[in-house]
Design goal:
The protein has 162 residues and is of the alpha+beta class. Helices cover 21% and strands 59% of the residues. A hairpin with a 3-residue loop joins strand 2 (51-63) and strand 3 (67-78).
Amino acid sequence: MSTEEQKTMSYKKLIVGIIVVAAILAILLIPMIPVSEAYNVTEPYERKCTYVVDDWDLVESWSLSIGFYVQSDVKVRNTDKYGGTFKVVHKLEDIHGLFGTVTDSFFLSAGASHTSTATFDTTMGQDTLGSYSVTAPTITDEQLVTKHRTVYKSIIELLVYG
């Protein structure tokens, strides 16, 4: 073999060696392995404000100005950390069905209470049955949500960082 042929063989071996090393480095360093990764994100969500009805009274009374009447008192306490506008609907029924409805809206800050009052003009001895409903305000709050995404990592990253 001549010197020229030996040099050509050496160059070919060197080029093949460089290609093999480059291929190994590419396989080790290029991110190509899919890995699931968890991450946390704060997201808004809507919920109803929390509250407690501390007391409800339905009382028949009489006064000079009105005469006979029924009074409905609903005491609502906001137990949430946010305030909002609450709505109380007072209903009064007699033997003929719905006698009357009164709606009351009011703002309650966090921890505050309010007594909603409705007065219904009735007659003496009228048999009545009362009820009420409370509608709490909608609050936009935030919650921490864990999500997953697919990221690509190299073999070296997986070996070093796990």
